[in-house]
Amino acid sequence: MASTSIHNILLAGKSSLTEFRGIAFVGGFSYADALDSAKGWAASIRFNQPLIQQFQDFYHRPDTFSLGVCNGCQLMALLGWVPGSDIGGSLGLGGDMSQPRFIHNESGRFECRFTSVSIGNSPAIMFKGMEGSTLGVWSAHGEGRAFFPDENVLATVVKSNLAPVRYCDDANNITETYPFNPNGSPLGIAALCSPDGRHLAMMPHPERCFMMWQYPWYPKEWQVEKSGPSPWLRMFQNAREWCL
């Protein structure tokens, strides 16, 4: 289910999240990107009691998964879906200042570029079999810096491998250095996932480069067809296989 359908379907009561196993909280200036890091989007869910109850029930169902990209990543953090209520924050309730979230880039500018990320070991179901990869990916955001008000939460995230994607430099080293790290996220953190791996929020856009023709550059040693899929397609295949 695409998140842009929330207002038309869920708010109108025409459907329920009980009918779905997956949610994609999309990016690309969702909810106009005019209310500060998806706060307006989050508020439309959090302050509607029937709706927030649906989202909480969906989150806890063991047969569901979710993916948030860019604005959707911001939303999942504000809802407390990543890294999860057991790690930091209060699921969906807001008001917990320890909840990690995504704030303005250190550069103070909207940053759009093809950057490199490293995929590490994590419980994320969508990255199964992709561990150890270093891949190029499109990044386009003005508020993508991972912010951890509570250092203990950051330490737990790192120790539990709940930051599966990190920005890296040309030598494949995880970095906080601009412009390799476009927003200044600590430890190069570009994504967060829940402890059970079902819920994943990432700032870069894998959906914008799941085909090789969407790549502006890739290593010469890659033996791939320009018209074929890129390594990022594996994410979406993993989600389908997990559902099956």
TrEMBL record:
One GO term of the biological process aspect: purine nucleotide biosynthetic process
CDD domains per UniProt: GATase1_FGAR_AT
Q: Name one GO molecular function term.
A: phosphoribosylformylglycinamidine synthase activity
Q: Which Pfam families does the record match to this protein?
A: GATase_5
Name the domain of life. Eukaryota
A GO CC term attached to the entry? cytoplasm
Protein name stated in the entry: Phosphoribosylformylglycinamidine synthase, chloroplastic/mitochondrial
